[in-house]
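$ ./design --mode recover --in tokens.txt
reading tokens...
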């Protein structure tokens, strides 16, 4: 029996509906609205944005989401897709705008979630004042992501194999053993100095009922957008792109798709893929400077 999951972040917990399923949103602070969106992996949750949530609540009303299938959000066995994740962001922004009176929100997303944020921002451009994309996917030198609108990299045969009768849950439990989660976080950091508190929460989160459903879609490619480079090029908001230089996530050979556009800015940190954990003050100062200039 898994230990009940504790709150990943401080502040109030809100629950809203997206496509008939519960989605969890943490909120704290006061001031202009800022939405934070964690990455997608086998053991993801809003715990991945903790340093930003704690820093910016001093000057902003911060909202940090648990994406569908993760954290305290609904983890039922359903088809997790970019559409499901993007619609959850639309629903979150609707709640944020109603609660704060904001016409548009600033939003920051990490890794694969940058694809969901970019899509939401192209679909409802008036609802997003600015976008911060941390270690974005789909911009590697060899990435060719200009498929039909709404297409994905899903491999149904792989999903069927991963879920296969009786072994899907066992496979996921193997991938989320504490030592395996530590191994992958070390690769994300590019060192063994990863955040221990985040590791502990990832271990606990991966043990919750239904924790395997969204990650198995992720592993089989179903959460990656085949058309994301076209989506990135349609963005009209000011964009801040940032990334590190260590670990597995260092290839941004096509980042000029974003950084060469008007009102775009880029920052590189001598860190792994989550620079705000390692150089919190420097990261937040550069992000704040970008926000001040929007």
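writing sequence...
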């Amino acid at each position: 029996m898994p230990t009940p999951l504790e709150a990943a972040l401080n502040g109030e917990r809100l629950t809203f509906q997206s496509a008939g399923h519960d989605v969890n949103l943490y909120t704290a602070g006061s001031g202009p609205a800022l939405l934070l969106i964690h990455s997608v992996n086998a053991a993801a949750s809003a715990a991945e944005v903790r340093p930003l949530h704690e820093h910016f609540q001093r000057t902003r009303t911060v909202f940090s989401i648990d994406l569908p299938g993760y954290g305290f959000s609904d983890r039922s066995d359903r088809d997790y897709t970019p559409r499901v994740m993007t619609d959850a962001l639309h629903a979150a922004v609707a709640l944020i705008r109603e609660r704060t009176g904001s016409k548009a929100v600033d939003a920051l997303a990490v890794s694969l979630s940058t694809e969901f944020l970019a899509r939401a921002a192209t679909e409802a451009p008036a609802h997003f004042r600015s976008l911060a994309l941390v270690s974005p996917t789909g911009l590697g030198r060899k990435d060719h992501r200009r498929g039909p609108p709404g297409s994905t990299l899903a491999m149904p045969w792989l999903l069927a194999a991963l879920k296969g009768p009786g072994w899907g849950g066992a496979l996921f439990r193997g991938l989320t053993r504490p030592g395996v989660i530590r191994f992958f976080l070390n690769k994300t950091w590019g060192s063994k100095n990863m955040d221990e508190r985040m590791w502990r929460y990832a271990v606990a989160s991966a043990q919750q009922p239904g924790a395997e459903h969204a990650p198995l879609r992720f592993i089989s490619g179903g959460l990656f957008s085949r058309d994301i480079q076209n989506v990135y090029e349609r963005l009209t908001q000011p964009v801040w792109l940032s990334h590190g230089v260590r670990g597995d996530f260092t290839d941004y050979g096509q980042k000029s798709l974003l950084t060469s556009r008007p009102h775009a800015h880029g920052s590189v940190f001598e860190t792994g893929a989550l620079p705000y954990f390692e150089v919190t003050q420097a990261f937040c100062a550069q992000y704040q400077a970008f926000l001040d200039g929007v």
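exit 0
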